Amino acid sequence: MKHVLVLLFSTFCTLAVCAQQNTAPRNKSAAGGAAGKFFGRIVDAKSNKGIDAASVELFHKNNDILAGGMLTKPNGDFDISNVSVTDSFRLVVTAIGYAKQELTVAFDKAARAEAEKDLGNIKMQADAKYLNSVTVTAQKPALQMGIDRKVFDVEKNVTSTGGTAIDVMRNIPSVTVDVDGTVSLRNNTPQIFVDGRPTILTLDQIPADNIEKIELVTNPSARFDASSTGGIINVVLKKNKKLGLNGIASIGGGSPSIYNGNLALNLRQGKFNFFANGSFNHGGGRPKSETYRANKDSGVVTDYFNQFAFTNRIRRFQSVRFGMDYFLDNRNTLTLSQSFGGGNFTNNEDQNQDYYDVNMQPTHFGYRTSDDKSSNNRSSSQLIFKHNFVESGKSLSADINYNHGNDKDNTSIVNTYSYPDGSVYAPASNVLNDGSGRNNQVTAQVDFVDPHGDDDKLEAGARMYINDYASVFNSYALNNGAQTKLPVSNNYKYREMVNAAYITYTGKWLGIGYQAGLRAEQSKFDGELVDSSRKFGYQFPNKINNIFDALFPSLFLSKSIGDGQELQLNYSRRVRRPDFWQLNPFVNIQDPFNIRMGNPALKPEFTNSFEFNYNKTYTSGNFLGVLYFRNTTGDITRLSDTITADQFQQLHNAAVDPSAIVGTFINSAHQNRWGAEFTLQQKIGQQLDVTPTFNVEYKKIVTGIPNNGLDNEGLNWDSKLIINYRLASTSALWNKWSFQATGEYQSPEVVPQGKRKEMYGVDFGLRKEFLKNKATFVFNINDIFNSRKRGTIYDTENYYQDSYRRWDVRSFRVSFTYRFGKADFQLFKKNNRGDSDTNGGMERD
Asked: Which of 36, 184, 433, 612 has its CA 20 to 30 A from that of 748?
């Protein structure tokens, strides 16, 4: 690993040197080339009076690199010097109480070596219009829909403020979240990225207040990881790039046992942009779960069992993230970021177990307590280099990401049994569990983009991904003061490696836009049970005959049919590799009646995905309709059955019930999904907008194993409705209130051997902005009716079980946020010429 990192760092240095050598001189101070000056005046559009202290920023047109900036003088005058005369720029002007103004500016081609250009009076419009004494402020929609992706603006989501990324996901169309916090995109498990790269963070470890936007890609092209069968959800974190010092501070609290805080700072000056944030999140709750089971023998009921449990849960998360952008020159940028995070969790469960004979008469009872304490620590390091060529849109970027994590878990379990009269039915069972793990991930990637005119573009890149994981789990039964190590203990490690390269070409032919791409991935998984020296895993491709297992083509076709309408047909081939918990043969006995274990013999599944999209954009909204089909071979499917006599004999000291159900995974022959999804974003008047989403799907599972009861098929659907209302009034008390309500419903869904039961929930939030939009107050309620729980029904020859469980309960939160900043803040002192001591810094006379 050390040699790999040294090699990658050397590659970065080489790229940086080559890029700078190929870059034409950009300004006088950098290379002695021609430099010029823009000047003008910022004025009120109605009065033509100059605006004092307006922020004027000059960016290079084809990137986000700052070329200069300043605050206007009392009469509105500004001037920005030492600017390249051969480039085009984007001038951005902002002022309190005015709408942002953006202009494209450039010097005349006949500019002399020392050029000056007068931009004249730039007029600023007030940011609000007064109609019938009601203030109406234009807002960018919270959801922006495109053919290939949806972008969700998290800042406009009221109900997730003060929460985590899980709360954000519950309020995004097409996305569903189950009671364990597992996220699904169109009933598939998506790949989660943070800032476009893999992460070992769980979504409940990312504060909602740190997220800028969420990007949904339902059918990724060859440019993206092939292991994104279920699509991609990219979490984009906030990183401010405004001039000067800017910050956001927030604090909140609620019930049950909720409190949180967040502080984000950003400083941009000259060639540097520094950013940092820290957060803390604490939450609690006491969810309930229930199980009702009838055990069978050849389909005939023999006895009954009921289980009721309450769990007192406490979750604590903390994180720190910091970094900087360094603009080496106008075309080369280096970004370095580092984050640290961790969590501490407590779960204390009380469980009542009732046993009945075939006549529903009680035979005995059980009482189980489980006290679990766990913790984890995470860190992530990222180094990014980007070079923009002279040609518009042409770029080369490279990055290295290193993620590290470790975790610990300790659990104490006590199970007692009694007859209905209170006498002892069986000796008590005591179990102690002690586990730890560590994880290291390295991702290195290079991407090249080369446009050819307005319609054609070549993209290519390469990627290396290495994931090392190791865990040790020991479980002991306590009998008369003596410890007996149980066979559920294991010492497990693995290495996963994926090497990939891709190429895509975008063009237009006969009015039809197209993007054709091919991705090649070589993957290898090596797992080992250390104590037994048992090894397992897979390699794709493992011989030349199955080279197609390493190739993942994609094709996107699009056609504009006028009047804001567009059609698209796309295809991609994807792979889903089994994860750690699906492969790990570790036996989870947290619930003694529903045991879970992995299957080290699992192989990857492959999916052919087709989509037909229709997108219509009109004045008051947007409509997106999608028809899709997915064929998955080797589908990773959950299998459940009652515990065998041999398994129970191995676990009899672990407080496991003799009629327990054991859940594991197998590779089915195939699974087919036919579906349709409709999303409408409709603005009603100036203050109300609604976003309904409806997804219907028919699923058929074929295992290829005769007479096992796993094959199943059926129809399921889910819907979501998001309503936003903004109150506008001349009264300071009632103006700038906004309300949001989100409701979702998931219908029953077929699974092997049974079905998932319906699930629904409603969230509500309100927001008030004040102190000239610098401060925000938010109150929200998650799961108003306390109804968000996941139920499952299994029906086989050996048992019938109806159960539900939940992870969260209804919660209330109040949050206060304050934004602050100083555009003329200077960290670096000025030199004798009055300029910032770094080129491109902010100036003010």
From this structure: 612
